[in-house]
């Protein structure tokens, strides 16, 4: 029987994969993708499936589950194969007395998935630690080591890897500090839990525990028994606009290289879609997380079509009230809610 994408994704959505392979080494990852390319077979890479929504018809090609293993920690940082579980790497780095990644604790998915949307949380971004990325360029059929400046990080959650299937991330090299203290804490709530003023450091391992506590309370740590975590984290991206519409003037605003970034969670909540909204919508299989308005969740038995139409309903409601059109933060494969970017399928 074909493997279902719903078994590989945290939102538990997506139909069958025409073909499926699990790769456990970097060399195999390159050769499996190379072979598929020379056979003209479309490829979909899946790490932890925590930022991926696949259509009910599935994927008409080869789904490659990236499970390449290998963590090396030294005095200057850490080298990770793409398939390494991200949060395990964060925990091991802290246990080895290396600081830096503490606020990126509890984020689901693989190491290889982190540069794709320049994963970030509590004031830190992956790109701040990235020394190099080993990349397989499928168009030029070469493996290269890139510096962070080649990755196209810039505006919010962007990179050259996102919404492209051209590059396979094989390995990351992260630069970390040999330190037991964290970087200065930037977030009020995190500082509050730690009992330190914003802008000061705390024990890096205590910061990890505090972050996990805050994330768990917001349904942002995976838990099979909690449908609030059957999500892709933030479904909608914080919109970056050249000009903020008058109706949205009260929304929290942040400077961004591409304009002004608005809080999608605030817009959703203040357009009348509070956390937990949607339980009586359709068949009751989708809804916003009861802990976070930005997370669209599968309450059990949802189809991708239902999730797309629920997401469109939220997007339209926000646009009606604030004149701001939300787009997805996650990768939509063989599904879309009109006009939103969709990855190419090969
Ligand atoms: C509960 C929850 C909380 C979350 N919290 C956060 C958060 O705080 N901050 C944040 O930024 N994100 C967050 N996310 C989103 C997600 O965890 C991250 O984007 C994560 O890095 C995705 O990694 P993954 O391995 O699961 O990628 P997948 O979902 O498997 O894939 C995502 C995309 O990357 C591509 N891809 C995967 N592996 C590779 C590779 N090796 N090379 C090239 N392309 C690849 C896939 O083809 C797909 O296009 C959260 C998600 C969930 C479910």
Helical element count?
A: 6
As for the number of domains, it is 3
Biggest sheet, spatial arrangement of strands:
5-6-12-10-11
CATH class of the largest domain: Alpha Beta
**Associated small molecules:** flavin-adenine dinucleotide
The CATH topology of the largest domain is: Uridine Diphospho-n-acetylenolpyruvylglucosamine Reductase, domain 3
SSE topology string: EHEEEEEHEEEEEEEHHEEEHEEHE
Structural class: alpha+beta
Main sheet record: 5 strands, antiparallel
Cα distance spanning the termini: 23 Å
Gross morphology is globular
Overall strand count: 19
Overall residue-averaged pLDDT value: 94
Show unreliable segments. Answer: 339-346
**Beta fraction of the residues?**
15-25%
Radius of gyration: 20 Å
Helix content: 10-25%
- Overall CATH architecture of the largest domain: 2-Layer Sandwich
